[in-house]
Amino acid sequence: MWPGASGNTYQDRRADHSNIANRIAASERRSSVVWPDAIKSLLRLSRHADEPCHEANAIAEEQLTAVRSRLARLQALEEELSRMVGVCEGGTVEHCRVIEVLENHALCLHDHEAGK
């Protein structure tokens, strides 16, 4: 048992899923924080109309790369969720495929941690 585990399998699984959800939410927050900084930089650049635009273009390219990366992660997540939902047998949570995949990422088709 890990620290804080209650010994009650259902409660421990709920706590573990809460940790997974928090990790996913934190990852999404980190990936969306970049854009406001880019906007601030672009606004700063806009006050210098006579300057070359290579810096603005570099910022846009960075954002394009970040957007494409996020889209790829979201598409992989969509595929994974679709697969999990598609194999639902309508049983109990104890035998739920969605819960099994959340507990064991080896069952996933994609490595969701890779894009961090």
Describe the structure.
With 116 residues, the protein is mostly helical. The protein has a domain at 29-107. 67% of the residues lie in helices and 0% in strands. α1 (9-46) runs antiparallel to α2. The mean pLDDT is 75.
Describe what is shown at a glance.
The chain has 116 residues and is mainly alpha-helical. Helix content is 67%, strand content 0%.
Observed structural traits:
single chain, 116 residues, mainly alpha, 3 helices
Q: Evaluate the radius of gyration.
A: 20 Å
Work out the strand percent: under 5%
Uncertain spans: none
Overall pLDDT level: 75
Helix and strand pattern = HHH
Shape: elongated
Distance between the termini: 28 Å
Q: What percentage of residues falls in helices of 4 or more residues?
A: 55-70%
Q: Tell me about the largest β-sheet.
A: none
Our count of helices gives: 3
Number of strands: 0
Task: Give the structural class.
Answer: mainly alpha
> What kind of assembly state do the chains in view correspond to?
single chain
Give the SSE map.
Blueprint lengths: L8 H38 L7 H33 L10 H7 L13
Helix pairs in contact: 1-2
